[in-house]
Amino acid sequence: MPLPLISILMAAYQAEATILAAVNSVRLQQHRNWELIIANDCGADYLALCRANGVDDRRIRMVPTPAIRSGPSAARNCALAAARGEYLSILDADDTWQPEKLSALLPLTGELGLACDNTRAIHPDGRFVATAYAISATPRNIDALTMMNSGVPHFPLLRRDLAGSGYHADLWFAEDVVFNMETIARAGAMTLLPQPLTNYIQRPDSAANAADAWQRAETAYGQILKMLARGNLAVPARQEAGIKRALVEKRRLNLAYGSAVAAGTASTFQDFLAIRRLQAE
Fold first, then answer.
1. Is the dihedral of CA 186, 192, 197, 198 positive or negative?
2. Quick check: 8 and 83 in contact, CB under 8 A?
3. Are 8 and 21 in contact (CB under 8 A)?
4. What are the residues whose beta carbons fall under 8 Å from the beta carbon of 172, sequence distance 6 or more?
5. Separation CA 97–CA 195 (nearest Å)
C-alpha cells in the first residue's frame, strides 16, 4: 500500500535567511511522499533561491498570498487551498524538523487523525531552551487545555478534514493556538509523542520575539476571547470555561513578559518562561 501524501504548509515572509534550512529538513524526511507548499507573503522568489542553492525538487511548490503581508493565517490558508494531501502538517519558514518527524507521527494518527511531537525550543546556535513536555517514549492523548498550558507551540500532523476551513485570517498572533484548539475539538483529543522532533528556533528578530510581539499578542488574546464569547470558535466539549481561563492566564503572562522586555530583562518569550520555571523550582 502506498504511503499517504502529506501536504506541508509553510508561510514565508522575508524568510530568505532561514527558509533553506527549513526546506532541507523536509527533504531529509524518512517519509518520502510529501509536498511542500510555500505561501509567499512578501514577493520573494523562494523557488529561485532554492534552485540557486542546489535544491530543485518537484515536490516543492509556491503560491502567492492575496497581497504582500497578508499575515500568517491568510498565508497558511493559501497553502491549504493548494494542498493535495490526505494529511497536513505545518512548518514555519524559520524552524526545522528532525528526519523522523513525519514517519514517527503518521502511525499515531490512526485513531484520532491528529498527532503532535514534543516541540523543542532552541537558540539559533542549538542551545536548548525548553520542551513542551517531559521527554518520554510513551505516546498519550492530550486535550486542548493541556496543549494551551504547555507554553510552547505545537505543530501537529492531521487528517485533512480536521482542518475545517483553516485558520482565522484576522488573527496575526496565537493563530496556531486557535487552529490546534479547533482541530482537537473536531478530533476529540490529540495524540502526543513526547519526543522532540520539531525545532522551534528562537530568533530575536522573528515575529514571535520582536520588541512589539507582546503588544500584538495582547491584541490577539483580546480578539480570541471575544470570538469565544460570540461562539465563533469550535471548542472541545465541556472545556470552554477552562479554555477561557487559560487564555486569561496567557494574557496575564504575556503582559508580564512585556514588562520584562521594557525592563531589558527578557529577550525571547521562551527564555522568559524558562527563567520563570527556574525561579519556581
1. positive
2. no
3. no
4. 71, 72, 73, 216, 220
5. 12
pTM of the model: 0.94
Q: What is the DSSP letter of 57?
A: -
Residue 59 near residue 34, CB atoms below 8 Å:
yes
Distances (CA, A) of 50 to 16, 58, 78, 177: 10, 12, 20, 30
d(CA 62, CA 46): 8
Read off the pLDDT of residues 132-168 as tens digits, 9 standing for 90 and up.
Answer: 999 999 999 999 999 999 989 999 999 999 999 999 9
DSSP 99: T
What are the beta bridge partners of residue 121? 130, 200
Q: Are 62 and 47 in contact (CB under 8 A)?
A: yes
How confident is the model over 175-189, as pLDDT tens digits? 999 999 999 999 999
| 42 HSE (CA, 13 A, CB side) | 12
Longest CA span, the chain: 58
d(CA 185, CA 237): 7
* SS3 at position 274: helix
Here the cell at position 80 is 491549504
> What CA dihedral angle connects 44, 46, 50 and 51, to 10 degrees?
-70
Which residues, listed in sequence order, are joined to residue 115 by a DSSP beta bridge?
157, 191
Q: Which three cell numbers stand for residue 23?
A: 526546506
